[in-house]
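Thanks for the sequence, V.! I ran Alpha/beta hydrolase fold domain-containing protein right away. Repeating your input here for the record:
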Amino acid sequence: MMLPLLSFITLLLFSSCSSENNASTDDEAVALEAETRMNVSYGSDPQQVYDLYLPANRSSAKTKVIVLVHGGGWIEGDKADMNSFIELVQTNHPNHAIINMNYVLATFQIPAFPNQFLDIDRVINHVTSNSNEYAVKGEFGLIGVSAGAHLSLQYDYVYDTDDQVKMVVDIVGPTDFTDPFFANNSQFQVLQDLLVDESAYPTGTNYAVATSPAQQVSATSSPTLMFYGNQDELVPLTNGDRLDTALTNNDVTHSYTVYNAGHGDFSPTDALDLQQKTSVFINTYLEIE
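Predicted structure:
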C-alpha cells in the first residue's frame, strides 16, 4: 500500500537539490570515508538487525542519526521497504547517518507490544554504545511509515527517557486505538489481543490506551511531523486529528498535513510536498551544527 509513495519519492530524488550545506570537518578529527554496514545485529533474534549508512567526514561531536522504521501491520514488512527513504536522506541530508532497522515481527508466540517498541530502544542503545566506533552523536530522528510510524511515536512519547530522539516523522501511522474506528471493530479487537503481551503490563491496564501514542503525549514529546490521507481505509483521518489535538493541548511543536489520498498512495505533487516538509523538519530539529 505504500509502494506508490515510495516510487514517487524515488523519482523525486533525481530532481532534488541538496537542502543541507556540507558541514566542515572538525579541526582535530581525522577525515573518514563514507561507510555502509549491512545487517548489523543488535539482539539475539535473527530479525534484530539494521543497516548502517555512515557519511564521509563524520564525527561523534556532530553527526546525528536518522532511524527508518518500516510498516506492515506489525506482522510483516522489511527494512528494504524503506530503501527509497535512504536515497532521499542521502541526497538532501548527506551529513546525517542513517539506520534502517528491522524489528521482530509479531506472531502468536511473540506479541508486538511492547516488544517492537523495545526493539527501537535496543537499536538506539546499540548505536549509542558504539558511537565512538561509528563516529556519530547520540541524537536521533525517527521516520516511520504506517505501523512503523506508530512504533516511532510510541517510542518517543513513552520510552525515550533520555531524550535522545529530537523529532519524529509520522506517515499514516495509527495513533489511537480508542478511536471508534478501531474500538468498535471486533476483528481489530481480536488482532489487538494477539498483538499485546499482557504479562508485560500491570494488571488492569487498558491496552488500547497504553499502546496509543495519542493517549501518551506529554509536554516532553518531541516535535512531530504528520502526514495523512483523507480517504484512508486502514488508518482513519480521525487518528491524525486525535494526535493533532493531543499535541496541541500539550504545546508540542508539530505540523499536520492532510492529502486527498488513501493509505500512503500520495500523488507526485503530494510526495514532493512531503519530501520538502520532511527536509525542513530535519534541518530544523536534527540540524548538523
